[in-house]
Amino acid sequence: MSWTEIRPELLTGLWETLAMVGWAALIAVVAGTPLGVLLVLTDRGRPLQNVLVNRVIGLVVNIGRSLPFIILLLALTAFTRSLVGTSIGLKGAIVPLAISAIPFFARLVETAVREVDAGLAEAVQSMGGSTWTVVRKALLPQALPSLVAGLTTTVIALVGYSAMAGAVGGGGLGDVAIRYGYQRYEGDVMLVTVVLLVVLVNVVQLIGDFFVRSLSDRSTRGAAYLRVSRPARAGVTAVAGVALVGSLTVGTANLTSDGGDGGADTVTVAATPAPHGEILTFVKDNLAADAGIDLRVREFTDYVKPNEAVANGEVDANFFQHTPFLDDYNDKNGTDIVPTVGVLVEPLGLYSDEADDVSGIGGGDTVAVPNDTTNEGRALHLLDAEGLIELKDGTGLNATLGDIADDRGLDIQELEAAQTPRALQDVDAAVINGNYAIDSGLDPKSDAIALEQAEGNPYVNILAVQADDADDPQIRKLGELLNSPETKAFMEKEFPSSVPVFGPVG
Amino acid sequence: MITVTDLKKVYRSRGRETAALDGVDLRVREGEVFGVVGRSGAGKSTLIRCINLLERPDSGTVTVAGQDLTALTGRELRAARTRIGMIFQHFNLLSARTVQDNVELPLEILGLSGQERARKALELLDLVGLADRAKAYPAQLSGGQKQRVGIARALAGDPQVLLSDEATSALDPETTRSVLELLRELNRELGLTVLLITHEMDVVKAVCDSAALMRSGRITESGTLDELLATPGSEIAAQLFPVGGEAYGAESTIVDITFHGDARGRPVISHLSRTYNLDVSILGAAMDTVGGRQVGRMRIELPGPYEENVVPLGFLREQGLQIDLVGVDAADLPALESAK
């Protein structure tokens, strides 16, 4: 990928990261500070001693801190939507980021405030100060250097968390690294992004350290507070100020421009980056305008969010899955999302660094398979079709390891689908999705030792919409564009492993 | 000015109860410097914190300037605290504020305007001799200077009462003396009533008009220093003014004589010796200033047991001297009284 292609992505990613982190940090400070202070004040021997309140706040904070961020991100969907009207995009990412940062920062505030000499609180009380005065005049100002250090730590943790924002289409630098570097194997993009993140984190740390030092200098012995010169302090303050205001305003501008439904002619489609996102981008750039469709493509790095976004109307359609996967989602979530047209099938393939053909795989060998319901079933059926294992009679599409009647001595390892190409070095063979195979530099046609059949394959990737929208003229038109000869030519050129399988589905 | 009646406070931790205050009565008169002495753990700290209700006693009352503080809560209590200054062993200055801003803090709480605060703060800093350090941070000051800032801050609300919680315990002797002198000056010039707690008898000797001894949550003796010095068997008096000296003879009577007032100038010892034809040995003697007055103390040895010396001791007593028998239980003292 060329620099000119990647530069706008990086720039957008940088602003998205700054906006997400900036807002989440701001909210964390506003909400986390009172929580942290309350944790101290309600503790035994403190002015507002209240064991019950203290325990409850402590518990809530601990729950917040123990949830893995990616779980929080996906679990908070309904809450996020009720709060900011959407659960995807930058806004959708900021809410869970803030929610995860609040308890994190609250604990740091608690530690900082607890370290303030209790005698100072006593002194303020002896002057007739209320508890609020104690907090405002003694606890917070005295804890300020530690609070700033805590904020620095929080911001850096947020930069790390924000890398997962791609799961809800939130973007950001980390997401660029995942989408291009991890999923498309663009090593140089990954490297540049990681370097940018390292620089960003270091700048944050430097600015934080600078303020901590200039704030604590005056509390230490001698005329040390003069060590940080006035211009230096003004300069750093200005840089930090501009960075904050910039990230909040520019980021917010992005926030307002990324609404799910645009005008009447806008069709927003959620997709996984390759090949679906790129096929849609081809349609958008070359065909949509002539057909009168304002097509918008939103890339997700998660397999749950695109369906959720369709179900709650945040996007109009999605293009990333096949019908069995969709059926499974509808079953489990009570949604009514339907396929419209089929576009392509990505034949699942069995790959091996050790063996040249299927006969080279046998008892004692380890085979990696994807661990999600449909891909695992699909992989097991492929292994069954090739005679490597034997499934029980009547096993459905969603086969699991429990459905194996005879494993013929194979050791089957379940891995995340995107991880299977990387596992090739560690296992004897791996069942890999077409897109991940291509992304990792494998050519399904020549490298696979066994490949799914395209004909009659139930795993055709489809354009899916809410049942009500199935007959929407814009959606029909988009379906036609995806099934057009131009798209076919593009796919054959760009994604040789994908087999176009056009026509109405469902 | 301060009246404490039957104050009780019990601390409970892990099922164990410790009585920090076990029925404390105390009366501090207007304009005096009152010292409460006692070892650590005697309950002094709890007592002084109960005076301005930083700690709420379990029972009993605290009256300051006619106001029953134990009856107050919330806003009223905070208003009452603004009229009671307090200084601390570790100064408790805010390190992030300048000296002047520290002194302004109570004025902020009182709601004064910026201009008024600055004027008042500088005035107070001038009073404690630190006008030139107004813009410094506490970390740049010596211990004595920090305590002066603490005093200026405590005076900001024009209090009638100043509470001092071991204010000189973290200071060296020289600095201690100058801080105590400042307290004494403020007491005289502003009519400030001072209640201080300390574990150092020297502090009581240097500034106090009255003192009380605290032990295991109780006040065991209390009074003006004159009264205490005149009280036979007073522990405070003995500690304030110790005279040493071991007896030479096996069968002898050892007596501590305290001179104050007119008795200082008279030649009582030679008079005693001549009148009763006694060989008086002087074991130890000292003159000192206690509570601003000259006091003398002397330990003498008379030959023969106590019974043989009843008459000479009666003579000394008639001279207006205070007699304390050393090594005789307090229970035996009435015998001395009756023998007079």
Per-chain topology:
The complex is a heterodimer of chains A (506) and B (340).
Chain A: H1 3-41, H2 51-66, H3 69-75, H4 77-84, H5 89-114, H6 118-126, H7 131-162, H8 173-182, H9 187-216, H10 230-257, E1 266-271, H11 273-288, E2 294-299, H12 305-311, E3 317-322, H13 323-333, E4 337-345, E5 349-351, E6 366-370, H14 373-385, E7 390-391, E8 404-406, E9 411-415, H15 420-423, E10 429-432, H16 434-439, H17 444-447, E11 450-451, E12 460-466, H18 473-482, H19 485-494, E13 499-504
Parallel strand pairs in A: 1-2, 1-3, 6-9, 6-10
Antiparallel strand pairs in A: 3-12, 4-12, 4-13, 5-10, 5-11, 7-8
Chain B: E1 2-13, E2 16-28, E3 33-37, H1 44-51, E4 59-64, E5 67-68, H2 74-81, E6 84-88, H3 99-110, H4 114-127, H5 143-155, E7 161-165, H6 173-190, E8 193-198, H7 201-207, E9 210-215, E10 218-224, H8 225-229, H9 235-240, E11 252-259, H10 268-276, E12 281-290, E13 293-303, H11 310-318, E14 322-325, H12 333-339
Parallel strand pairs in B: 3-8, 3-9, 6-7, 7-8
Antiparallel strand pairs in B: 1-2, 1-4, 4-5, 9-10, 11-13, 11-14, 12-13
Helix pairs in contact in B: 3-4, 3-5, 4-5, 5-6
